[in-house]
């Protein structure tokens, strides 16, 4: 199996060249954000105000990392359920130029429609592998919303973070196609 190496910032050419099912190793800068941070960002967008972080051509990882242990950059940093951000994702994709989201689980049709329209992809990270994922994080710093604790927005520098393209910018969706392959018939 071929693994595609990509580095942020992501371009239209990169995202449009990815297909659902592709295995990717992502390096570069990735921002974290969960529910509360997404709500704050969306509120700023709705007010026409400037965001505290530039998301154009970037990736957001849906995680609330655990505190770092002595001698480590970050604690466990596993993905959270992405559908919790579905109410906010279309606006972020459209208004900021966000190119990628990282999490676990399916997305709703509004998110997929925005992904198709604006050239965004959704990567799946392995749930339960937060300790392993943290090994790919070389640097971590809180960039805004420190009052949210682990749900603050962090700027991560990642190296070879292993991901799967779960939904590509054409709307191909592993969460829709793959279960059909394993459905039992004739029960």
What is the rounded distance between the termini?
A: 34 Å
CATH topology: fumarase
* Main β-sheet, spatial strand arrangement: 2-3-4-5-7
Strand content: 25-35%
Rg (C-alpha, Å) = 16 Å
By CATH, the superfamily comes out as: Fe-S hydro-lyase, tartrate dehydratase beta-type, catalytic domain
Mean pLDDT: 94
The protein's oligomeric status is: single chain
Query: What characterizes the major β-sheet?
Result: 5 strands, mixed, barrel
The assigned structural class equals alpha/beta
Run of helices and strands: EHEHEHEHEHEEH
Number of helical segments with 4 or more residues: 6
Number of domains: 1
Q: Helix proportion of residues, in percent?
A: 25-40%
What is the 3D form? globular
CATH class: Alpha Beta
- Uncertain segments are none
Count of DSSP E strands? 7
**CATH-defined architecture:** Alpha-Beta Barrel
Overview of the structural elements:
- This protein has helices at 12-16, 35-47, 89-96, 109-118, 130-134, 174-182; strands at 3-7, 23-32, 59-61, 100-103, 121-124, 137-144, 153-167.
- It is α/β, with parallel strands linked by helices and 187 residues long.
- α2 links the parallel β2 and β3 (59-61).
- The radius of gyration is 16 Å and the shape is globular.
- The termini are far apart.
